[in-house]
């Protein structure tokens, strides 16, 4: 958890029971006026309906490569969630439920998923595409070793290691999924902060430091 002025950031794992409990506890304890979550309208509706909205028709909307990336990402997250018996995104659902209990405003701060996937579809280089295919095929034959307890939020050094590996192997994904989205979420949170209201933001672990850094930069502009 990171706090800066009237903003508190909770870094979560989307399949962690620990995150679900932490989100509920902190929101009930602090009773913020606004609960911001790392979702857009499309992902929110999909999460609340508890089913994937992806279909073949989405290829036109997301681009083929973006669609395939989302499909594989959803499958991997679902399988990991089955291991720990937690539905992916449950901590976001808990944040929404808890915010409603205390009559807090709910704010969606992430970029529209269709925009994100289109950027991935357009930006992936040939090298990244071939590497992605290789990594997917390899995963079917070689069981990957998980370096942390899936039931808990990974420690900072593990997050940093994973982020660096993503940046080295897939620079386009790192730029679109992390760098650009961090800026968008930071900008949206900065706008909320200027209202003077107390805010709790529920975001994926690893985004916190960068978002606070960007907010400080925005304040100095």
Question: Could you list some keywords that capture this structure?
Answer:
five-stranded mixed sheet; single chain; 10 helices; alpha/beta; globular; 221 residues
Describe the structure.
The protein is α/β, with parallel strands linked by helices. It is 62% helix and 10% strand. It has a five-stranded mixed beta sheet, sandwiched between helices.
Helix content: 55-70%
| Whole-number mean pLDDT | 84
For the termini, the CA-CA separation is 26 Å
What is the count of helical runs?
Answer: 10
Largest sheet: 5 strands, mixed
Structural class: alpha/beta
Over all CA atoms, what is the radius of gyration?
A: 17 Å
What is the strand tally? 5
Low-confidence runs? none
- The main sheet orders its strands as 1-2-5-3-4
Secondary structure elements and pairings:
Layout: E1 2-4, E2 7-12, H1 17-30, E3 34-37, H2 41-49, H3 58-62, H4 64-84, H5 90-101, E4 105-108, H6 113-123, H7 126-141, H8 156-169, H9 171-193, E5 199-204, H10 208-220
Parallel strand pairs: 2-5, 3-4, 3-5
Antiparallel strand pairs: 1-2
Summarize the structure.
This protein is an alpha/beta fold and 221 residues long.
